[in-house]
Amino acid sequence: MELVKLRVADLEVCDRTRVRKIKPKENSEIVIEYAEAYECGLITAPLDVFRERGTERYIVADGEHRLLALRRAGIETVECRLHEGDEIAALDFAISCNQSHGLRRTKADKYHAFCQIMETPALRAKYRTDTELSEKIGVSIPTIQRYKAEWRNSEGGDARVRARKDKARESAAKNTPKTVTAREGTLSNDKVQVPERTQENPPATRIDVPPSDARG
Fold first, then answer.
1. Which of 146, 100, 89, 92 is nearest to 117 (CA)?
2. Dihedral pair phi/psi, residue 137, rounded to 5°
3. Number of folded domains in the chain?
4. 95 lies in a domain?
5. What is the pLDDT of residues 25-70, one digit of tens each?
6. Residue 76 falls within a domain, yes or no?
């Protein structure tokens, strides 16, 4: 991480790294307040930005409201803490922000952050336990357990995962050869082969033996 000056026009916030449920508006009260503070030199904290190698994108992980305020105030450059990483790294960083500073997250924001972890395989593997999720998002363990129950039954949660698994099982079942049980069948390579019915090989006919003959 290093402190650098970057052009405001080069900075971006993508939907994938946004941890708030609702996208901030440029004319919102908090953005207007921040813009006035920038004009008066009252905001000096740097933005946290991730540089994605290969694309040279500059993704804002912490400071979306401040970025909107900078644009509103017409400020061309801003000091940033520059990190190396892709969108997932930026999202991982962003989820931990605003727990103790800035505009506090709402309950909807916290649940949205939880969903982003669960729907991002790399983060879901990184934060596996309720304790890890609790510390990451900044909520209690019972809240994490409630989040899990809600997410499992949601459109984007485990219900969708289960549906994909069920569909895969149904497809596999259709492609699996049926097992045939027959007296005249012969086993070959663990499969039951049933000979074709012909005149020379008629089906077995059941013969009922009279009781008197059976005693003889």
1. 92
2. -90, -25
3. 1
4. yes
5. 888 999 999 999 999 999 989 999 999 888 778 999 988 899 999 9
6. yes
